[in-house]
Amino acid sequence: MILVINSGSSSIKYKLFMKSNLKEIYSGIKEEITSHDEAIYYILKKLKSNNIIKSKEDIDIVGHRVVHGGDYFKEAVKIDNIVMDKISELSSLAPLHNPANLSGIKAVYEVFGDDIKQVAVFDTAFHQTIPSYASIYPLPYEYYEKYGVKKYGFHGTSHHYVAKQAAKQLGKKLEDTNLITMHLGNGASVCAIKNGKSIDTSMGFTPLEGLMMGTRCGNIDSSLVVYLEEKLNCTNDEMTTILNKQSGFKGLCGSSDLREVISLAKKDDKKAKLAIDIFIYRIKEYIGSYLMILEDIDAIVFTGGIGENSSLVRDEICNTTDKFNLKHFVIHTDEELAIAELSKEFI
Ligand code: ADP
User: Both ends of the chain: CA-CA distance in Å?
Assistant: First the structure.
């Protein structure tokens, strides 16, 4: 069996899959964790007491979601000490995520023993094929060399997964397929895929860049950060919170949840209507620019909570893309299944 772990700082999500056919057999979340070791012990106990597994030996491999793989990890890797050191080193680029991901990996060794096989699947890896003219910011070049300042992109596992599914539905090989994939959830990003490879994506050095999101502003004039820090007399940390947690749908109309925003808009709430218009406008901007760089595409793909469920958002976008005769797919993303699939190759 394949155990997939998404280890955060305060919770661990987990799913168990059959090795043979990747059928999902169990999923759960352990919240308010006090330590990662304790949480993994709890998960193992839970799987045993529910008769899902007889012993820990039933687990063939553990696949972990790791947020940041920097420029070092271009694909999923089997975990060893060197990999763990690198994940730790990359914590400066993802201080909220990589340390928690690493604690999850260490906890699995602690509970399952040193012989357990583990795999790291990185959110950034799929975007490692983005050429430097699309990933390097036009800032002094030494910031890239000294501090690793460049576009890394995120949601890579999801973009890759839905691209594979779309290619299947088109009856084509992934390496012959050009797509624009849109992962629209609380976080949202667009990816330009040429011959099965990511050549650009809307998130950047952090997940803040690009589309407007549930609570993130996406692209804004960078001078506004300094201007507003002065006006609001706030610290860098406070500004980071404003941009990441108090902006987007939430900042514009008070709710970060599109379902609530839509019901406000139906009651003629002007800010809610404006928020939906801005969200859709910015998605169209990306589709337009990615069409230009891809030159020809097989389809656009919607995924994520909004992409999969909101016909309002899809219809608004497709009203425009239909004019360009673009085919579209709605594909359910399953990042854990994608991690299980990639992990299976290491058994
Ligand atoms: P996360 O990025 O946290 O995984 P999801 O992919 O679950 O988020 O997406 C959450 C978003 O999807 C929320 O804004 C929610 O309102 C929206 N959503 C879910 N179902 C619907 C629906 N039926 N209609 C419109 N929006 C929906």
Answer: 10
Q: Which helix (H) or strand (E) holds 314?
A: helix 311-321
- Is 123 among the catalytic positions? yes
CB atoms within 10 A of CB 163: 26
Distance 216 CA to ligand 1 centre (A): 15
The per-residue pLDDT string of the chain (347 residues; one tens digit each, 9 = 90 and over) reads 999 999 999 999 999 999 999 999 999 999 999 999 999 999 999 999 999 999 999 999 999 999 999 999 999 999 999 999 999 999 999 988 999 999 999 999 999 999 999 999 999 999 999 999 999 999 999 999 999 999 999 999 999 999 999 999 999 999 999 999 999 999 999 999 999 999 999 999 999 999 999 999 999 999 999 999 999 999 999 999 999 999 999 999 999 999 999 999 999 999 999 999 999 999 999 999 999 999 999 999 999 999 999 999 999 999 999 999 999 999 999 999 999 999 999 99
Catalytic residue of the set 71, 123, 268, 298:
123
Ligand 1: which residue has its CA nearest to atom 27?
A: 306
Residue 257 one-letter amino acid: D
The number of beta carbons lying within 10 Å of the beta carbon of residue 284 is 14
CA dist., res. 196 & res. 174, Å (int): 5
Nearest ligand 1 atom to the CA of 306 is 12
Report the nearest atom of ligand 1 relative to the CA of 249. Answer: 14
Nearest atom in ligand 1 to 256's CA:
14
Q: Which residues line ligand 1 (CB under 6 A)?
A: 185-187, 214, 257-259, 304-306, 309-310
Q: To test the ligand 1 pocket, which listed residue (213, 306, 330, 332) has its Cβ within 8 A of the most ligand atoms?
A: 306
Gap between the Cα atoms of 317 and 43, Å rounded: 42
Residue nearest (by alpha carbon) to ligand 1 atom 24: 310
The pTM assigned to this predicted structure is: 0.95
